[in-house]
Amino acid sequence: MTVNFGVVLVTAGSEAEAENLAKSLVEHKLAACVSLSPIRSIYTWQGKIHSESEWQLLIKTDLAKFEALKTKVQELHSYEVPEIIAIPIIAGSDAYLDWIGKSLSLQSEV
């Protein structure tokens, strides 16, 4: 089986929303791990420049699950247009990548 691991970036408006998204993605085996960090985003929305505190989710997953992950994020997210960006992992430690696969039930259980 060819596995295409990646990191998906999602921002959330609050820590509580970020935690809810992260827990749901891990529980549904759409993510092996989600790291959360507070950030400040400056962006244009509806013709105005905004500067907001947000939470960044770094979601480690198999990109074959991207469509289901995207659907789950859109279902739970408060933003009209949430950031959902996938970045492929081109290299990583074998042990960590193996753990991601096991966590996503792609291989035998962890």
**Whole-angstrom Rg:** 15 Å
> Can you count the helices?
3
Show unreliable segments: none
The counted number of beta strands is 4
Please bin the fraction of helical residues: 25-40%
Q: Based on CA inertia axes, which overall geometry fits?
A: elongated
Output the structural class. Answer: alpha+beta
Explained architecture:
- The chain is of the alpha+beta class and 110 residues long.
- It is 31% helix and 36% strand.
- The chain contains three helices and four strands, in the order βαββαβα.
- The protein has a four-stranded antiparallel beta sheet with strand order 2-3-1-4.
- The two termini are 18 Å apart.
- The mean pLDDT is 93.
Write a short abstract of this structure:
The protein is α+β, with helices and mostly antiparallel strands and 110 residues long. The chain has helices at residues 15-27, 66-76, 94-103, and strands at residues 5-12, 33-45, 48-62, 85-88.
Name the descriptors:
alpha+beta; single chain; four-stranded antiparallel sheet
Layout of strands and helices, then pairs:
Layout: E1 5-12, H1 15-27, E2 33-45, E3 48-62, H2 66-76, E4 85-88, H3 94-103
Antiparallel strand pairs: 1-3, 1-4, 2-3
Helix pairs in contact: 1-2
